[in-house]
Amino acid sequence: MNDLIDTTEMYLRTIYDLEEEGVVPLRARIAERLEQSGPTVSQTVARMERDGLLTVAEDRHLELTKAGRARAISVMRKHRLAERLLVDVIGLEWEHVHNEACRWEHVMSEAVERKLVKLLGGPTTSPYGNPIPGLDELGVDHVEPPADGDLQRVDEIARNGGGRAIICRIAEHVQLDPDLMCELKDVGVVPGAEVEIVSVVGPNKPIEVRGANGSTELPVGIAHAVMVRPK
């Protein structure tokens, strides 16, 4: 990680990411996401536990404490506001926005966040459809909670016969790969777009998603991280 990356905040945000994706937050998952060794992750998690930011449950999954969750929400809010600025104002290419926002999230002040909310017209989601958490802490009123009840994951739809759906959210995990993000954009698998999800039999087969401009095959782990609203 470079000098602009706060290791503790990256761990907190990664745990938050995993929770959003419905993946049990384990040290092994953090090692995969951040490309760090097992011993390094274990040492960092132990330090964060001593600092009161998380606890390790009996089944070894990681749980954020109240203080840890508050800080994770703050980092994610900064990250997604930065993404909106980079897309809506600066015009940075869609596939490069996530990695750039990972730098901004650690240096942005709350005063800048408030200015950004006004400048951007009060956004409630990132350019990838993910809800911006903790906006109430910036004095934003009447923020409607995201309607998650009718959303499904691409892999779930594929295993249940497939069908047409509207892309709603592309998780942080997917955004780490600029080449994949380019491919999704090129074939039309972007938030708000209607796609066809092809039925698949078997737990580990790639899932074909057909957009307006072509199709792509997603590994199961990636398909699980893309949420849609069935038509």
Proportion of helical residues: 40-55%
Radius of gyration: 18 Å
- Which word captures the global form? globular
Following the backbone from N to C, one meets helices and strands in this order, namely: HHHEEHHHEHEHHEEEHE
In whole angstroms, the N-to-C terminal distance is 41 Å
Compute the number of strand runs: 8
Strand content: 15-25%
For the largest sheet, list the strands in their spatial order. Answer: 3-8-4-5-6-7
Q: Helix count?
A: 10
Q: Major beta sheet, specifics?
A: 6 strands, antiparallel
Structural class: alpha+beta
Mean pLDDT: 93
Low-confidence regions:
none
Family: Belongs to the DtxR/MntR family.
Domain HTH dtxR-type: 4-65
Protein name: Dihydrofolate reductase
Subunit structure: Homodimer.
